[in-house]
Amino acid sequence: MTHPRLPSEAPTTMRTRITAVLLAAALTPLTLTVSAHAATAAAPWDFNGDGRTDLAIGAPGATVSGKAKAGAVSVVYGSAGGPKTSTRTLLTQDTAGLPGAAEADDAFGSALASADLNRDGYADLLIGVPGEDAYDTNNGTVTLVWGSASGLSGARSLHSPFDRDYDRYGQTLAAGDFDHDGDPDVAVGSTGPVTLTLVNGPVTKTGSPNGASGSRNDWWSSTTGVTHLSSGDVTGDGHPHVVLHGRAAHNGAATTALADMEIGNYNDWLQNLPGGFVSAVGDIDDDGHDDIAVGNDREASADPGGALGGKVSVVYGGPAGLDPDRAPLVLTQDTAGVPGAAEKGDRFGSGVALGDVNGDGFADLAIGTAGENSASGAVTVLYGSASGLTTKGAVSYTQNTAGVPGASENGDRFGERVTLSDHTGDRRADLSVSAPGENAGDGAVWSLRATATGPTTSGATSFGPGTTGVSTAGTPGYGTALTS
Question: Which keywords annotate this record (predicted)?
Fold first, then answer.
């Protein structure tokens, strides 16, 4: 596969004023070919096609074959009882059929995404490897592992087409039909001159993808690049938009925006969102427009958009993107009805997830508070309704909650990442929580079953890296990335 660079004759900047922020971008499209559509695409994260979401767990700090921080990913398949550790797949760059080889500091598993990229009826798994030395030190790459009736097997690399214009390619990922042509695409965040790449689908087991485009944007710091991606159908037009996170070039502040990547120069259509470091997208009020939860776990002294103990901003979607008639809902632990109290270092908003826990048709919100109680951590669940998110009935969980395995210990960071996904097939979103600091950096994951009244601790399970074959040498950070 060839990897063309940005042509020298491409314009370096195109300027437009978007919501009073001056953005600069250069977009270089590559050749796009059109192919026939295959079968209806499977739902993301269902790698074996059984109707249940599978749980992918990234451990980018894992030691592999003696190589420190080479990285690993565990995939635990869903079952009627939830994630079932006896049916699992361990993936590293030393796994047979995967490209490359485990090397120190590759950080395989730093980011995860899923879509049925080849339209064969099984979801595929995308794994970010930002430390891979491709073309140059830490250029990075993405590994694509194929789904099948028996689970994940076989893989290919998805290199950037801009071989000298990026670094740490794969540090964040998203997948979906972003250009609205019926085929799933891949969005890849990186650092360097090109901070966002859109790889056009379909992506097949053999042959090159259908082209790509890359974005230079001097709104983001090229040093940190695009640091997080999420996506959903915010406008209700049938295709997902992308939420981009980075740091401002001029002061390092968290910057977040909504992009429509169906537009050729998608940086000409950016809508500002409250600044934050993570986000999740889902339809909280069931109005046909996905809404966006943005987590900013920093203090105001560390980030201009931060707050005491951290905060989460909920922005409601509408036909034109953000709903102009509804102000963002700002949540902290001092918000009426939210359990706890805002305290310095709590990191409320370290992780966010949206999914319908109780099966009432409204997406609910899980919020991680990884710094709570000397970084032992906590997770709070709030519920959606026809009028939007409500704090009524909000509940928090820690490792000291009755029925939750383990015990809260300083530095566990329970709630660093959270996900709400239907692992059982009952059409309710189960709560999974990671604590990458558990057991001095080994990390661990918990899963709580969903019920009509919310997550239950009855039958809650927990497992760490050793259970799924990941080495506990060093600090693997099991759960640094999770199914989204």
Answer: Glycoprotein, Hydrolase, Repeat, Signal
